[in-house]
Write a structure and sequence with these properties.
Layout: E1 3-8, E2 13-17, E3 22-29, E4 32-34, E5 43-47, E6 50-53, E7 60-65, E8 72-78, E9 83-91, E10 97-106, E11 112-120, E12 131-136, E13 141-146, E14 149-155, E15 161-166, H1 175-178, E16 189-192, E17 194-204, E18 209-219, H2 222-235, H3 237-252, H4 264-279, H5 296-299, H6 308-321, H7 324-337, E19 362-363, E20 368-369, H8 375-392, H9 395-415, E21 427-428, E22 435-438, H10 439-458, H11 462-483, E23 484-485, E24 490-491, E25 494-497, E26 503-506, H12 515-518, H13 527-540, H14 573-586, H15 590-605, E27 616-617, E28 624-625, H16 631-652, E29 663-665, E30 670-672
Helix pairs in contact: 4-16, 6-7, 6-8, 6-16, 7-8, 7-9, 8-9, 8-10, 9-10, 10-11, 14-15, 14-16, 15-16
Length: 673
Amino acid sequence: MPRDIPVGNGSLLVTFDESYRIRDIYFPYVGKENHSEGHPFRFGVWIEGEFSWISDEGWRRELRYLPETLVTDVRLTHEGLGLEITCNDAVDVDSNVFLRRLNVRNLADVSREVRLFFHQDFYISESKVGDTAYYDPETFALIHYKGARYFLINTDIEIETFATGRKDFQGAEGTWRDAEDGRLAEHAITEGSVDSTIGRSLRIEPGAAAEMFYWIAAGKSYGEVAALDAMVRRTHPGELLRRTGDYWRAWVNKNELDFGNLGSDVIALFKRSLLIVRTQIDEGGAIIAANDSDVTLRASDHYSYLWPRDGALVAYGLDLAGYSNITRSFFDLCGRIVTDEGYFLQKYNPDGTLASGWHAWWDVATKQRLMPIQEDETALVVWALWNHYDEFRDIEFARELYHSLVRRAADFMARFRDPRTGLPQPSWNLWEDRRGIHTFTCAAVFGGLQAAGKFARLFGDTEQAAVYEAAAAEVREAMRRLLYREELGRFARSISPRADGKFEVDATVDASLFGLFYFKAFAPDDLMVRGTMRAVEERLWAQTEIGGLARYEGDGYMRVTNDESKAVGNPWFICTLWLAEYRIASAQTLEELERSVELLEWTVSHALPSGVLAEQVDPLTGRPLSVSPLTWSHATVVSTIIAYLRKLEALLACASCHRPLFRYDRRARRVYK
């Protein structure tokens, strides 16, 4: 199930599935230690002898956010039960407390008792072994704990009924089954593989509504969660929800952007994307690719890692939008995890330790060492760091990272090249599914070396600046000579060295070829780039009602249809937005720029109702595929819209005085003074 309406504060992250069940609880790192392991926390209702979980048939569920906040706006309606429930969820902006407000409306014409049941299915520290759940008479709350991880569950009025019990052991399903008769056994403590359920009853008059609050406090000790519980009661959970909503409204609007002629739907997705991206970033600086544990069911691993590539491109978008404090933490972390040799490995855990990987260190055929890297990851961090400096001119911060990160990485990039060709040595591509000398990687290395040269000149290191600039020029010239194919009229995806000294050419059309102009290796109006991007659009666009751009020809990852007359692969949000970036970069008129907006609107139309974007969409149905939200998808929305606004301003400006003299009405397609 796609993850929808995530809420978090950089230390505690809570995600929901499309049935409004809590599915992931990450603490104390965003993306590390999922204390539910994807198992659902159920929420159910008993009324007049009938019980229903919110995930059951019969419920109409609308999962959204309150505008411009990280506070949810969930509406649950069951005509058969005559109930309407409105819920607001958030993680408090200043403390590790998940909060929920429930407003339950009785749609019947008689007074009724409504019993609400909240089920908790913790796998503390990602294991069901050794947990304890008990009722605590000091806080009048239910507590789950193991080691230095505590979770306290409470409501605004003393918990009326509860149960702790065994789950996933010798046939025991859990205490949620106990709730289905409207009563709980009230067993006060259970250890081992345990879950719990609490209950509250509301008496509601006909047509009226009643309100209650529920919360989970997360901490590293009993004293910490008890203090958080006392704070919630003292401040009132409604007040915590209010201040959290107010903070996020201020946060997402802090830069007061002029959105020009963009429609309200695109503007809303821009702001939602910023907020979603923020939920996926740990306060220590790790930018996590996605936090959706369902992927483990098909891959035995997940996306809750820092890929330096994703992180750099996300940081780039955040910097363009003006969120420098977040990206400083990311770059600082990169400066601490880069290897002594100057490269990044495939991916890292949220705490900066090395994560799982599948890039081999040893070639069993040649008995030679392999570099287990995607070199674009190293290059993109340096490239993004220069943009950070260029946007904010934080010279002291840049100076701190110049020797520890920039010099080290740039020396590696300049050195890790084939002396015969000047191109980078083979490494893994950005999709992580093949080794070779990739056009995207070469373009990223060009951008990274150019950025390093600018840093070197900034800090008076002229000798190194010349080295990096020369290496960048050699990479670009070699790309022109070896990766551009006259017989195709475009760039190849990659080349691979053969034993005879020649190269095997991979002519596959790949959306990542957009890197040619994006990292400024070649101009967007260069005939070589034009031919390449023409092929990208013509060959990768889905020929269905859904549309959208695939990653590359023959992409088999989670493929929905083998009918290539319809789609050569599933459409990806990032790839579709890369096409928008090309239309923006190459636009010479307002009418040409307008063609990029239709791709932004395509993105809006394929988001979940909450605004959440997955990794891919089904080319036949438009449903989200793979993980959601994908941080990279949302960051690309941000960077693409900023690129559009800057190009719009440039096209509207007077060439001599650089002052906007006209405004373009996109709907009317007219220019006004």
